[in-house]
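User: Let's play a game. I give you a shape written as tokens, and you guess the letters that built it. Ready? Here's round one.
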């Protein structure tokens, strides 16, 4: 599930849309590189949907800090019943290109 269609219907301006999309991409990349089963083909779509919904929820609450959006989405995912063993990558552990939203 790409986040773009969800963002298009959420009423964010262009800058917020870019920022939230970047945070979603960074969170998804962190899940993929974690080796978690949540990134496997059978779980990827639902994992991406949960990440997207959380990033959008936080955006609606006014959060615009890229690192906090990424970290919150990962913590939210890890705390879900479907992800008991997801290792959390904090924003300080993300590659610079992901933690800065590039």
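Assistant: Ready! My guess for every position:
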């Amino acid at each position: 599930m790409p986040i773009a269609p969800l963002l298009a219907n959420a009423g964010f301006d262009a800058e917020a849309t870019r920022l939230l999309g970047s945070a979603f991409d960074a969170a998804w990349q962190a899940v993929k590189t974690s080796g978690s089963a949540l990134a496997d083909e059978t779980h990827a779509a639902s994992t991406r949907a949960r990440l997207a919904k959380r990033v959008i929820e936080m955006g609606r609450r006014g959060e615009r800090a890229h690192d906090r959006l990424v970290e919150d989405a990962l913590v939210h995912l890890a705390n879900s019943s479907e992800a008991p063993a997801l290792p959390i990558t904090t924003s300080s552990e993300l590659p610079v290109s992901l933690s800065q939203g590039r």
